[in-house]
Write a structure and sequence with these properties.
The protein is mainly α and 42 residues long. Helix content is 79%, strand content 0%. The chain is built from two helices and no strands.
Length: 42
């Protein structure tokens, strides 16, 4: 079960980071961390 959850979450987290980098990291890193935490722990 854990492997399936990891397979689900990792691409989403990577997409958030990718978009942040493509936007030249213009958002505060704390904001990005909070978005990721919000997605992982709803």
């Amino acid at each position: 079960m854990k492997k399936y959850m990891i397979d689900f979450y990792i691409p989403g987290i990577m997409a958030i980071i990718k978009n942040w980098v493509l936007n030249n990291c213009s958002d505060n890193d704390e904001d990005i961390i909070n978005v990721i935490i919000g997605c992982v722990r709803p």
